[in-house]
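ugh finaly. both done.
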Amino acid sequence: MNIERCGFAGTVLIILLSALPVLAQTPSDEVRVDPVRRRGAIAAGLRWLGEHQVRSGAEAGSWQAMTASYRPAIASLAGLAFLANGHLPGDDGPYGETLSVTLKYVMGAMAPDGYLGQGDRSGMYIHAICSLFAFSCLGMQADEAREPELAEWCRRSLDVIVEAQRVSKASLDVGGWRYDPYTSESDVSVTCWQMLVLHSARQAGFDIEESIFRAAHGYLNRAFHVIEAAPGGDGATSGGYLYRPGFSRDPEPSATALVMYIQTLFDAADDARTQQAMTYLRRYPPAWDGEHYGGFFYFASFYMMQGMFQVGGEAWDWFGPRMALVLLDHQSGDGSWPYPPNNAKPALMRETGAAYPVAMAVLMLSLDKQFLPMFQRQRRLYDSPRNIVVPASKSGASKKDAPGEVLLIPVPTPDDDGLVVPDAEWGGVNDGVPGDEEWGESGDGAEGKPTIGKPLF
């Protein structure tokens, strides 16, 4: 592995978990989260984000961060946090204008070639996060006249992702992505972020060649690694995903949860592998300062939360409420969240700014509402389409679409309070308004020795 290319993402950390607490697996070991407390925490986090957005100057629509290249990604994560709670760009709600200026700022960060990660060694992370936010806004703006410009912007961002996958690579790296659009290397983390964008693009109506998905899933499948049962143990064989096939030696919890999430989201999960991955992930219960996060608590937790949610059932009942309680117990009085004391690179906390952990925490607590395409358990389109004009595309939009041809873009239907509520038929976790139920049932954990890859922040 070329450490020079890691940029701010850091080096691989090999962590020993000898001190990791073990949760007993008993029927009475039930954890529940007060829904009123959870809603209050989300509301306080969104309020903090709204109050701390930059309102004037060249950086209007962003949030404070010492490293300029990080700002578009942080703004996009904050924007996703608002979208995840039913707020839309330009609507009459309390954050309609906040989202509008956020989207304007992120769209303005695109370079002439369509790339959003210019000036940063790990720019494909930034590109994917910004693109994910933009695609999640597509079809959601109050002013429909702005939709064609956004659709063209999204098409250009897709072209960058598609062309980056086509760069000549060694056999083990074929189908994946890594830190910049021109590299011949791949890793699981960056690859999964690009696939999230592709998933959201397909949800929005863009026609993407199936070969792109096949190649990407092929790369992820090569990352699976079986862990034989230890002598004297329970006899269960586990397995996980490597950060880089051919380079990494051991699976990593965050990479395993992330790939499991992506494979399930695309209906491409293998039942046997998923079961082995769940056996492996049970070793790593949520913990504020858990060493298994390798100093990247928010990024790794974001991966693991989504992986468990997509699997659902007992896995989610075990993990979801525990992770929620960790977040709720560490929220500050002003609605923000700090970094854990063992977070990697103290300087990085200043570089990313205070908005990053707030956005990530709100996103995790809002996951089960399923308002975002990437949060939905099933690949279903919204029921009420809105007509927008989508420009022709080289690779993103369908080649059969002539310039100016109308494409149906799905949008949610607001409820009586103006918030969008997904139909339980799509795979919602409960009847009625999502997010009002209590989370939780029981689970366990065990010791292990993972390595953590190189997430963005």
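ok and the 2nd:
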Amino acid sequence: MTEPTETLRAALPPQAQSKLQSLKLVEGRAIVFLDAAGLDQNEREQLETAVKDALTGQPGVSEVRVALIANKTRRRIIAVGSGKGGVGKSTVSANLAIALARQGRKVGLVDADIYGPSQPRLLGIEGTRPDAADKQLIPVPSPWGVPLLSMGQLIEPGKAIAWRGPMVGNALGQLLDAKWGDVELLVVDLPPGTGDVQLTMLQRYKPDGAVIVSTPQDLALIDAQRAIQLFELGGVPVIGMVENMAGYQCPHCGEASDPFGQGGAEAAAEAQGMAFLGRIPLELAIRAASDAGTPPAAGEGAGAEHFAALARQVATWLDNLR
């Protein structure tokens, strides 16, 4: 004989069945708990009405009560940092976020490089300003499935920013405390160095982990060590190091060369006892696609696979967190 609650479950519309947390029948009252995470007010009302319509009049049901639960999303943060500028950290951040999204993660991207924001261009949404609701910014969707918030969307293009520490901290807060909806993971593109943004990040929004980007050359590696030390002092585990601009193959003659050296980041990672996350080659195609707002990770081929491999390692690290 079919249980009464099973009959009621079967009577629910498909959307309600997919969001059902529990259903009880107590003295004629059908009490339904639904997961309403990610639904706006109109969608919540429609879902509640649909459940009541479906269960009202069912055998043994004299009253229908619907409870909509929206547990706060446990949003993880991955910081992408470097000790110095010009190592391709922003390009790695954008493509890492897109590669993670293509692997099924709900990812948002924060461009925390207050003084030199570049993510709007990298994602092809330059000139698009975010809206706001309830004093919170609403991230701008990108064509690649990764919403973005960047200081570059809030200021006049080409305008210089001359802010002191507290203003920088407030700006970072606006980007991180935005209406991210069902985003589960934020990739944060930090400015180079170990300044106010990094300190604010560690104090207010402690990342779950950090990815360090460096070129193979000794000078970049020396500065990368400072970034690593800052995260370690802040109690943020370093997921590993990425060696960017590692190797160049001439498109005309096919000869390979290493204008920035080779293997430096891998050796540094080994010396630090941390993971080496791979090499991203110095390729014209990556540079051209990034400048055009069509990130390589969104496509196919070798360029996309470099970032997909990086994303798989970061995703595995996240999955192993307790």
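summary for the 2nd one i guess: The chain has two domains: 4-69, 76-319.
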